[in-house]
Write a structure and sequence with these properties.
273 residues; mainly alpha; 9 helices
Length: 273
């Protein structure tokens, strides 16, 4: 199975190269090649997820290797959904490299199968983890769009229309798609927290226990709730929305990795090395 993971990494890396070449040369065949390579990498990646499920009998999120791999798989899946829905060719310039980095990072951790316990065997766990990772993937892509938005805005304000101006979509398009990503991410995060509460009650006997992961998940939810409220009520669009999407993703990374690495709690069985 390690060889299939390696193939996925190589395909994601080649996809990144194709997308960067597309950014510089603006040849449509390079974008199509990047998308095709990413799709094949995603299919091989899916095989590792399915194999992990069949081998263990539960969702493969029992160690850091599996958790990072599942996070990357979710980003790839959401990326394809956004690409098909909006025909946004340039987003791969962010998605392919981040997938490559995530999978390389995952490969550095041991992939020892965890002892199967009742903790991992729950419909609510599958629901909780799946929707949480879909939401986080949507937030990751919103961050990518936020970065591209700021690059394009800088080009427009400079009035020189240099490298990025002709290579990136309009500000309105990126702002709108970024907003869609945040709405999807927030909806999935909310559903993930609800299923997490039910799962916690079933396994640990209480809905909330001030576990560090729970606290930071709540902080992340509140951050994106404020972002959406600001957009609806205060007109936070464009640059402000892009910056907040980037900051939100930084908060999300700490919730996902920082809490796992530096704090102890109920979620340790899912994040051990």
């Amino acid at each position: 199975m390690e060889s299939i993971i390696l193939v996925s990494i190589v395909l994601y890396l080649l996809s990144s190269v194709s997308y960067f070449a597309y950014l510089f040369l603006q040849k449509d065949y390079l974008q199509r090649a990047g998308l095709f390579l990413l799709l094949i990498g995603f299919l091989f990646h899916t095989l590792t997820i399915v194999y992990g499920f069949m081998r263990s009998g539960h969702l493969p999120v029992s160690n850091m290797h599996e958790t990072l791999s599942f996070a990357g798989w979710a980003i790839a899946g959401v990326f394809f959904g956004i690409t098909v829905k909006f025909n946004l060719k340039i987003l791969g310039i962010f998605a392919a490299p981040i997938l490559t980095v995530i999978m390389i990072a995952a490969s550095q951790f041991p992939n020892e199968p965890a002892a199967t316990t009742q903790v991992f065997k729950s419909f609510w766990l599958i629901s909780h983890v799946t929707v949480i990772f879909i939401g986080e993937a949507a937030f990751a892509l919103a961050c990518g769009l936020g970065i591209l938005y700021l690059l394009q805005e800088n080009e427009i304000k400079s009035k020189k229309h240099r490298f990025f101006f002709k290579r990136l979509p309009s500000l309105e398009m990126m702002d709108s798609i970024g907003y869609v990503c945040i709405v999807v991410g927030f909806a999935m995060l909310t559903l993930g927290l609800i299923t997490g509460f039910v799962y916690a009650k079933a396994v640990w006997g209480r809905f909330w226990s001030w576990d560090p992961k729970e606290v930071w998940a709540g902080i992340t939810w509140l951050f994106y709730a404020v972002l959406l409220h600001g957009r609806f009520a205060l007109g936070w669009r464009g640059r402000r929305s892009a910056i907040l999407a980037i900051i939100g993703f930084v908060v999300l990374i700490f919730t996902f990795l920082g809490v796992n690495l530096y704090m102890e709690g109920h979620h340790e069985p899912f994040t051990k090395f």
